[in-house]
């Protein structure tokens, strides 16, 4: 496995791979790799001949007051995980490589970035879409892999790629969960054992939503009220939002119809956690 710290060196590695007829897969990450990332690497291995993992804690997607400084950066352990997972190259640029000067060019997806997390993290998605554009321009992957756990991010990136005619495919892989249902996330590292148990109620609330839709409940306020009850029973949980939205437009809906995305964001202790489910009410 090669480790490239500069744009020039990753481009040279990719050129060699491409010249030998390999297709390129990119798994963009901020490091602190876990089984969720490994599942993305495995998906990339299946579809691509040459798999690149980028590790870059992107400053522009953190809102002031967020955890940029304390975001975990276990670089050696990350390299070990990549090596064992069969990654061909890790691209781990220093901030000066990615943002050598004051950044005055941004990629901004409108509308889809306004609801859900967009309301609480102004500027976050602009940072994500800008850094992903840079990564796509640097690595020029045929396919890039993202997790369904960050549902809004995945939808926003797909839309950006379509709207800007970027020549790559976006593959969205299922959320990986702990045994108790808690969605695997780098930020789970901030939680105590008790807080992890408490956090399992996020998935319980989402399952409740699924059951209610399956049972034919159509009124979203009714579903959200039941989900809130589950989360409000846990004193350590502070609900940021529970929204049921159209899975394509991300607009709030009053009435369940077609494919819907139910998304939850909560704070538990020092962590902000998000999770979601997609339900096809037409099924
Ligand atoms: O999902 C993440 O880890 C980040 O938002 C991403 C896509 C790597 C961009 O920094």
Description:
This protein has 283 residues and is α/β, with parallel strands linked by helices. The protein folds into two domains: 2-173, HUPs (Rossmann fold, 3-Layer(aba) Sandwich); 186-277, Pantoate--beta-alanine Ligase, Chain: A,domain 2. It has nine helices and nine strands. The chain has helices at 7-19, 35-47, 75-85, 95-98, 117-120, 124-139, 151-163, 193-214, 220-232, and strands at residues 2-4, 24-29, 50-55, 89-91, 143-147, 169-173, 237-246, 259-268, 271-280. The strands form two sheets. It has a six-stranded parallel sheet with strand order 1-4-3-2-5-6, sandwiched between helices. α2 links the parallel β2 and β3. α6 (124-139) crosses α7. The radius of gyration is 19 Å and the shape is globular. The N and C termini lie far apart (44 Å).
In short:
The protein has helices at residues 7-19, 35-47, 75-85, 95-98, 117-120, 124-139, 151-163, 193-214, 220-232, and strands at residues 2-4, 24-29, 50-55, 89-91, 143-147, 169-173, 237-246, 259-268, 271-280. With 283 residues, it is α/β, with parallel strands linked by helices.
Instruction: Count the E strands.
Output: 9
What is the total domain count? 2
Q: Structural class, please?
A: alpha/beta
Tell me the Rg in angstroms: 19 Å
**CATH top level label of the largest domain:** Alpha Beta
Helix content: 25-40%
Bound molecules: pantoate
Output mean pLDDT.
97
Gap between N and C termini, in Å? 44 Å
- Poorly predicted runs: none
């Amino acid at each position: 496995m090669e480790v490239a710290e500069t744009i020039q060196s990753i481009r040279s590695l990719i050129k060699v791979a491409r010249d030998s007829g390999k297709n390129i897969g990119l798994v963009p990450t901020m490091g602190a790799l876990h089984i969720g990332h490994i599942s993305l690497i495995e998906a990339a291995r299946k579809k691509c001949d040459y798999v690149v993992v980028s590790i870059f804690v992107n400053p522009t997607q953190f809102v002031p007051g967020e955890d940029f400084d304390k975001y975990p950066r276990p670089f050696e352990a990350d390299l070990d995980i990549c090596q064992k997972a069969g990654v061909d190259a890790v691209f781990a640029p220093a901030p000066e490589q990615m943002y050598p000067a004051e950044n005055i060019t941004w990629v901004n997806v409108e509308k889809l970035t306004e609801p859900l997390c967009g309301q609480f993290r102004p500027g976050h998605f602009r940072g994500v879409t800008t850094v992903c554009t840079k990564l796509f321009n640097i690595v020029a992957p045929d396919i890039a892999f993202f997790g369904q756990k960050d549902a809004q991010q995945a939808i926003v990136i797909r839309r950006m790629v379509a709207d800007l005619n970027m020549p790559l495919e976006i593959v969205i892989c299922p959320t990986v969960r702990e045994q108790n249902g808690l969605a695997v996330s780098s930020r789970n590292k901030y939680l105590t054992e008790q807080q992890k148990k408490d956090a399992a109620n996020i998935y319980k609330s989402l399952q409740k939503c699924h059951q209610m839709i399956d049972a034919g409940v159509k009124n979203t306020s009714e579903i959200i009220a039941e989900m809130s009850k589950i989360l409000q029973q846990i004193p350590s949980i502070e609900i940021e939002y529970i929204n049921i939205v159209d899975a394509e437009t991300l607009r709030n809906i009053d009435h369940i119809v077609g494919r819907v995305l139910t998304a939850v964001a909560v704070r538990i202790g020092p962590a902000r956690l998000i999770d979601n489910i997609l339900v096809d009410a037409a099924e």
